[in-house]
Amino acid sequence: MLDLRVLRYLVAVADEGSLTAASELVLVAQPSLSRQLRKLEYSLGFPLFDRSSNCLSLTSAGYVFAQESRSLISHAESVERIARRFADGLTERVVVHAPPTIVDDLVSPFIATELRASDPMIDVTPVPTTARFTPLEEGADIAIAFAPAPSRYISRILGTIPLFAQMPSGHRLACQDSIDMTELSSETVIALEGASRTRQLLVRGRNRVSQRGDEILSSPNPLAAQALAAAGRGVAVSTSMPRFGLRAVPLRTKGDVVEVQAWCAWRSGHHAAPVIEDLAERLASRYVRLIRSLSRQDHSDTKVITSAT
Hints:
Layout: H1 4-16, H2 19-26, H3 30-44, E1 49-50, E2 57-58, H4 60-87, E3 93-98, H5 100-114, E4 121-126, E5 142-145, E6 153-162, E7 164-168, E8 179-180, E9 189-192, H6 197-208, E10 217-219, H7 222-230, E11 235-238, E12 246-253, E13 256-267, H8 273-294, E14 304-307
Parallel strand pairs: 3-4, 3-5, 8-12, 9-10, 9-11, 13-14
Antiparallel strand pairs: 1-2, 5-13, 6-13, 7-11, 7-12, 12-13
Helix pairs in contact: 1-2, 1-4, 5-8
């Protein structure tokens, strides 16, 4: 098995060009350094240095081996650094999986404006809302979903956000504090396709007021739905932050505001739990501020339908 210490000696000699200079650099006596390198050559089965002249130079095989040794030493140092951070409850990178709306509206702005120099690198991956917390079993450090996490995970709620109808400011419904589902009966409603949480809430709400839940124009992502709404092609229904100058008005059905909860979770016993908990707390704080900026009325006296399943 290769000894990293001896590989460092090899690289030092290759860089310095002499045993004398290298021995001073690695703080090893020259005779001992020479013996270590000859022992390495013997174990490898080929010469690393050309000793035919006064100047010690690498053979062609030695040059390639020295380059690979540099890479191995660098990787080993990285592993050692990571191990030290793990021992201190720290980490260099946090992998976050979240629905696209959360990535666009919460995580990405958080990284851009609130990430500290002492924070780890955050690697963000958008996942379908149906993925929920399965990414935690596939290597993610943090998973965010519009549903509570199973009890085997550590979790906290990020916030509760209304389901918004989004339309241009000149739309007939844009000036209202909230919009009842029945008021959308004459509108083209645009929502995410598939089994997204937004679509489930919309269909459930329309069914409560005896409107067909299948009469919905599907969009591949929230941004496309908002673009269609901005173009006057319908009313986008989403929990996303409004774009393209759209107004976001909370939806209600039979007087009840329709809302959805966002949850953040991580594995119990995570090696960097303090870092994860700190990030989760700060993400929740930002999400609360985001929700307040979007909400246009006080629902304290209104019964709320919350998606928590």
